[in-house]
Predict the 3D structure of the following.
Amino acid sequence: MKVLIVGGGGREHAIAWAVQKNPRVEKLYCAPGNAGIAEYAECVPIGAMEFDKLTEFAVEKGIDFAIVGMDDPLVGGLVDLFEEKGIRAFGPRKNAAILEGSKAFSKELMEKYGIPTAAYVTAYSASEAREFLKKSRYPVVLKADGLALGKGVLICSTPEEAEKGVVEIMEDKKFGAAGDKMVIEEFMTGREVSVLTFCDGKTIRPMASAQDHKRAKDGDEGLNTGGMGTFSPSPFYTPSVDEFCRKNIYQRTVDAMAAEGRPFKGVIFFGLMLTKDGPKVLEYNCRFGDPEAQVVIPRMKTDLLTVMEACTDGRLDEIELEFTDDACVCVVLASDGYPVSYKKGFPIEGLENFKGKADRFVFHAGTKFDENGTVVTNGGRVLGVTAVGKTLVEARRSAYAAAELIHFDNKYMRHDIGKAIDEA
Ligand code: AMP
Ligand code: GLY
């Protein structure tokens, strides 16, 4: 079978690594891929938003299964286009990817179907937002409706900060059309947990829990990033929390989407806050998290491609998902200056230390081959150094030891990934 993966980050590397293990895969392509993915896949220089080129390529090569890893093409309807060309594809159609594509939609859905989340209102203009904010309690959370590269959420402690946020999102349109609407939300406190789930439109199967560290600097200081590191499982995600979420959050969400005529097939990523009043949904994403995928996929015992096909074909009820009892930690090696500005093109040394290892991996995020065939840095997040261990403490120790095996100019990482584990 011929498989095409769309994307080129650490998440897609983890997906490619797992998919190529299936002996039915005779040829794997990745668009655009990166220097790490090139170990298993032929990387083709087509961007994830070049829909015409992607579908033409898939038809020409006779792709049997396409996997769309990233949010932008999913929200833009790439899966629909593949299907129109008769290509089976993994991921939600456009009408279901709206779960991530519009925060106003997802909040309304949760309200309508009784899925626990923070209280909110939706503002359709800056003046409406200002009226709501007069009555709000602080801190208050402002969210641009659409995709904003993970930067469209502002936590405002004072009315002055909120006013600045309204101007940024709705008047200056810092995030473009994503700011046509804005969700104004109650501020919640508690532990955050990420739970990725597989869905086939009716059935939902949660994967192992994970936790991300989104801020750039140690101690959760600095700017928000795509994620500086993750660990799995989260010790705070206890069996009773899991039981509550399966009943009141996961199945309800899939049923709600089906009832709305938007059956969701693919991965729903639940961003949860464990509040004193119980777990509540912070956000939905319509794809694997990055770098959550890098700690969840290595723990998966069930064959990833088989599960993905079952999601697409509506047969997920036939699959029992299994995960190892191991723990996994991923430390992101970034280019110093990320997420603002950073240099690229530095040679990366030490990658050979990961070849053929079963307990440590290096998932490439922003890398490429230069003209001499040397692997060089090519992005803000460069690599996800990942280790498995019997316990989280052991996995963390070995992930940090492995991170020392890699060298490149301007290498930057957080030193406290998984530190919350010690408090559990
Ligand atoms: P989101 O993109 O919706 O996940 O928001 C990014 C981050 O903002 C989350 O991971 C939380 O840390 C924080 N956040 C979002 N919504 C809330 C909320 N209602 N209360 C507290 N923190 C929030
Ligand atoms: N790591 C957070 C995300 O993928 O959205």
